């Protein structure tokens, strides 16, 4: 607070001098721990808050701090914060990123309509960030429909690709099965040929052994006849 300003939360020191609590504590923080009036030491533990005086000060009628901007309102000091929070002549910073312009609260709506940095998500929830250039042309239903159609096309393309891959896999599996069947048939034919060759060889060996046995029996008969004579 400046000199001779209205006291905010008045406190009385042990020397009976009254000061704004914020001001006297600020003075103590800078090691000036003496009363500005009588130079007596200040004891923060002996400061007494004057509640009745604070209420009396709060009933004082004041003008709005925005009087230079055109506000003519007067109100009790205790209602200053409430008035400032809704005063149409209070300066405000444009909320749009990148603008930085200060406007009066009463002119904020008009500025918002013309601010080139205006940005706002679509209120219908489609997710589109609206700017001045596309706000008039934006059709939320059309945008959602276009996204839906694009998504359906993407899903159809994925499904068609999967079907083609599945068909290729089935064709490859059928080819492998045919090759396996051909290999099995080839192995069976080879086994039959081996068995046939083995049978032919056995008969040939048997036929080759039969004449020598006959000759042996004939020789034995002749020897018997010779001994008999």
The low-confidence parts are: 224-229
Mean pLDDT across the residues is: 79
Characterize the largest beta sheet: strand count, sense, and whether it forms a barrel.
3 strands, antiparallel
Shape designation: elongated
Straight-line distance between termini: 170 Å
Rg computed from alpha carbons, rounded to a whole number of angstroms = 56 Å
Summarize the structure.
With 229 residues, the chain is mainly alpha-helical. It has six helices and nine strands; from the N terminus they run E-E-H-E-H-E-E-H-E-E-H-E-E-H-H. It holds the Pfam family zf-TRAF.
SSE diagram, text form:
Elements lengths: L9 E3 L5 E3 H9 L18 E2 L1 H8 L2 E3 L10 E3 L3 H5 L6 E3 L8 E3 L3 H7 L5 E2 L7 E2 L1 H4 L4 H89 L1
Antiparallel strand pairs: 1-2, 1-3, 4-5, 6-7, 8-9
InterPro entries: Znf_RING/FYVE/PHD, Znf_RING_CS, Znf_TRAF
GO molecular function, one term: zinc ion binding
Keywords: Coiled coil, Metal-binding, Zinc, Zinc-finger
Protein model, in words:
The strands form 4 sheets. The chain has a 3-stranded antiparallel beta sheet with strand order 2-1-3. It has a two-stranded antiparallel sheet with strand order 4-5. Strand 1 (10-12) and strand 2 (18-20) form a beta hairpin. The longest helix is centred in the last third of the chain and has 89 residues, at 140-228. It contains 6 helices and 9 strands. The model is unreliable at 224-229 (pLDDT under 50). Helices cover 53% and strands 10% of the residues. Residues 220-229 have a biased composition (Low complexity). GO terms for molecular function: zinc ion binding. This is Ring finger protein 151.
